[in-house]
Amino acid sequence: MNIYIDIDDTICRTPPNRDYSKAKPILENIALANQLYDEGHQITYWTARGGVSGIDWTKVTEKQLKKWGAKHHALKLTKPAYDLFIDDKVLNARVWEKRGNKVAMRVILQQFQKDKDNDEKEDEQSGDRHDGPA
């Protein structure tokens, strides 16, 4: 699976003033993401750092991910700033924290795959076609 994971308030706690250099890692969540990486999933950290301020946080973020031991294939700082994200393929970070043990992660991933397969089958039967992942 190709999995995008947010950084701030997902794998680290960021101060309210958004001084990302002072973010503190949430080691349990980093371990969950690393587990997904180790299982062969494609992990991309996707953040809106600097999206509003225009500050380039790339070097700070890369250094943090390395220091925190956050395994990943890619880092993207292109996530738009928003107040609410509505999507059919979302796992809320708080749910992930609460249910993120190894068995729960496997069940969650299996459910996502099952839902994806069912959607594709329904699309084939109805004649709907998509250009790629939504």
Describe it for me?
It is a single chain. The protein is an alpha/beta fold. It has one domain: Rossmann fold (3-Layer(aba) Sandwich), CATH 3.40.50.1000. The chain contains four helices and five strands. The strands form two sheets. The protein has a three-stranded parallel β-sheet with strand order 1-4-5, covered by helices on one side. A two-stranded antiparallel sheet has the order 2-3. Helix 2 links the parallel strand 4 and strand 5. The chain starts with a strand and ends in an 8-residue tail after the last helix. The model has no long low-confidence stretch (mean pLDDT 84).
Question: Count of DSSP helices?
Answer: 4
Number of strands: 5
Strand order, sheet with most strands: 1-4-5
Q: Strand content of the residues, in percent?
A: 5-15%
At the fold tier of CATH, the topology name is Rossmann fold
| The CATH architecture | 3-Layer(aba) Sandwich
What is the structural class?
A: alpha/beta
Structural domain count? 1
What spatial form do the alpha-carbon principal axes imply? globular
CATH class, named Alpha Beta
In the CATH hierarchy, what is the superfamily? HAD superfamily/HAD-like
Distance between the termini: 14 Å
**Biggest beta-sheet profile:** 3 strands, parallel
SSE order: EEEHEHEHH
Given as residue ranges, the uncertain stretches (5+ residues, pLDDT < 50) are none
Helix content: 40-55%
> What is the mean predicted local confidence, pLDDT?
84
Round the Cα radius of gyration to an integer and report it: 16 Å
